[in-house]
């Protein structure tokens, strides 16, 4: 990305897609209703977006079902689907500046993160699953010589994907890439806070060669479009990333409709455990700050609980505070900005409410705690650190989804494990130690879908991601994601 790009000038030239994308064409909501898409950067209304409801979802599902039953995508040769998805990735890469700008305007993340982080990862995701298509093999079961048992993996059918606003395109790509690669049709419901990039990428899907009806986008609210997708009798699988509360609703919708397959990646309260024998305390402190203040803390696996061995507490917290001060909220369209806006006013007030709760519960406010840049019309909160936190306080137990860090001390390895696991969530855990035996024993004891050791990087598209407990089940990323979008068929043949 060139440092010479004037992102504000580029933003002024953008054309926002505002209609639903159903059956290969853009269309208004059947009701004619719209909702305002407001930028958290400055409070400006970007567009009036089609407010889809049950009728629009039904149209999209019918288009997806017709395309699936026709076999125009599902029955294509693997190499053909591979070529189309790789072309799709190339088009995303070609239009990455535009897509990144849509992400920044829509949900307030710094343009540098959107362009160099999110869009690179989206392109990699789509290309990776495209390349995987013609490298997946079925199985033959061990049977007597007079029988042959073929175990084939088939596309599940129509996949509904409901994604959050914190990483709008990346979370969508984690869903639609393996679903399309497996031969399914997809109905994508983006978050109402961030529909713009999903609507634009739908055009690119058709341009890449994905047949009409195979990839549909229905913007709207969770209680209308989201619920309609969850309850639809002709949706075969529903995949969701978002809050645990809403994830439970999708389980209910499935039970009350057609028992559709449901996979969930829900809340998190990641413990970031730092021992005195960490190989580099500066590196660990930077990882602690990055882990909670990146994307303004609006990350499902944000390292929101800092568990520090008591012997290094003062030294380490001082280092974390120094790194945290680099994350002062700034203009998301400035390439030097490291921390942008909260997604909207509702989320801002939610986070401020937790900050007040932390104070009232007796935690010590060590840094930040205030809303800033209010004169811009946008929504910004300072990097905030609490010390002296008890693991039973609300700021240590609830997913805040904002730039708020809770610091808790421990004395022994056993105490650290108890504190880390004392949560309804189990998405990720981070561990910093130079003791290999301790790292292995801790990793086995921690109830989390991912455990990182001496890093905050949990790996790229090649490793699975998902949670334990109320963080959900099923895995995004890696070849394991195909399990959510396929079903096994056994063909048992008697020979002779």
- According to CATH, the homologous superfamily of the largest domain is Aldehyde Dehydrogenase, Chain A, domain 1
The structural class is alpha/beta
- Please tally the β strands and state the result: 24
Kindly identify the CATH topology of the largest domain.
Aldehyde Dehydrogenase, Chain A, domain 1
Strand content of the residues, in percent? Answer: 15-25%
CATH architecture of the largest domain: 3-Layer(aba) Sandwich
CATH class of the largest domain: Alpha Beta
Major sheet summary line? 7 strands, mixed
How many separate domains? 2
Radius of gyration: 23 Å
What's the arrangement of strands in the largest beta sheet?
14-17-18-13-12-20-21
Q: Count of helical segments?
A: 15
How would you sum up the global shape? Answer: globular
Could you name the ranges where pLDDT drops below 50 across 5 or more consecutive residues? none
**Helical residue percent?**
25-40%
Q: Calculate the mean pLDDT score and round it.
A: 97
What does this structure look like?
- With 496 residues, the chain is an alpha/beta fold.
- The chain has 2 domains: 7-266 and 472-490, 3-Layer(aba) Sandwich (Aldehyde Dehydrogenase, Chain A, domain 1), CATH 3.40.605.10; 271-460, Aldehyde Dehydrogenase, Chain A, domain 2.
- Helix content is 38%, strand content 21%.
- It is built from 15 helices and 24 strands.
- It has a 7-stranded mixed sheet with strand order 14-17-18-13-12-20-21, sandwiched between helices.
- Helix 3 packs across helix 7, helix 4 runs antiparallel to helix 7 and helix 10 packs across helix 11.
- The chain is globular.
